[in-house]
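Dear colleague,

Thank you for sharing your sequence with our group. We've completed the structure prediction you requested, and as agreed, I am returning the results in plain text so they can be pasted directly into your records. Please verify that the sequence below matches your submission; if there's any discrepancy, let me know and we will rerun it promptly.
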Amino acid sequence: MLSVVFVPIWSKLDSASNQELVLTATKLTYAHADAGMSVPTNTYAIAALALASAAVALFEISQFRNRFTQLKLGVLNFLLIVATLGASFYYSGIGERMLNIKMPGTYEAGFYLPTVALLLNLLANRFIRRDEQLVRSMDRLR
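Please find the predicted structure tokens below.
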């Protein structure tokens, strides 16, 4: 999730006017702005959600002694990652309307990285739950 802050999320190139829009975690801006172009749009919500998700993930790892707390933090992290994807999709929709509506934009690596993080978070929660069930079954045998 930390890499989302540093890589582009979405871009759109208009070949007719040679303008390119680039969405990063902090702003939606023209790559080669001319005079009279619109002011860059701040997208700090994406960066804040991605950083919060990374912080929760690091804290979740440190809570290895309490699996129930880890599961709750995993659910919180799931919501933060989904919110990051939603914010990225929202701001890319704004970018679609800013430059030649007929030409679609392309999603970059910064959009797909939260999807990978989401998958890994779901796998972590699954294995934490499985570990908790194993510990409970061992307690029954004693």
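Summary note from our side: The helical segments are 44-62, 67-98, 109-141.

Kind regards,
the structure core
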